[in-house]
Design brief:
Helices cover about 20% and strands about 30% of the residues. A hairpin with a 5-residue loop joins strand 6 and strand 7. Bound molecules: iron/sulfur cluster (2 copies).
Length: about 130
């Protein structure tokens, strides 16, 4: 499952909280996306389903806001004209054509970069909060 982690702190760079959670839980955590500046850190991580509770609890203990990402990208199928623009820009291969040249989504692969949202000429894609 993907988790969105947010932390706001002036001492953000003093504590390697992600590394601590990995070591303390023995969990293989995949970092899908990271936006970090001087006082704000936002990460999307992929955690094995059987470790989600434990990992979430430990991040929260460390003052990190944790949100489960159930829906990763919103696709308005009615608007979609199956032009394929999203296929060429998506860095993780979420979109594919089937044999009838119809778009399909493998949402599990999404890292919420929002590149496809900007690229879709019909505004058929939207990020989900
Ligand atoms: S870019 Fe938009 S309209 Fe084109 S296939 Fe993707 S979702 Fe559909
Ligand atoms: S948000 Fe990024 S990763 Fe997700 S479907 Fe769009 S382009 Fe692909």
């Amino acid at each position: 499952m993907k988790l969105l982690l947010r932390r706001f702190s002036s001492d953000l760079h003093d504590t390697p909280y992600t590394a601590e959670v990995i070591l303390e839980t023995g969990t293989k955590i995949n970092i899908d996306r990271a936006n970090v500046d001087a006082v704000r850190s936002e990460l999307i991580i992929d955690v094995p389903n059987d470790k989600v509770e434990q990992v979430s609890a430990l991040f929260k203990q460390k003052g990190v806001e944790v949100r489960r990402l159930v829906k990763l990208i919103a696709w308005d199928e009615e608007r979609c004209i199956h032009c394929g623009a999203c296929i060429s820009v998506c860095p993780t291969g979420v979109f594919t054509f089937d044999q009838a040249w119809t778009i399909h989504l493998d949402e599990e692969k999404c890292i919420r970069c929002d590149v496809c949202v900007k690229a879709c000429p019909l505004n058929a894609l939207a990020s989900v909060d």
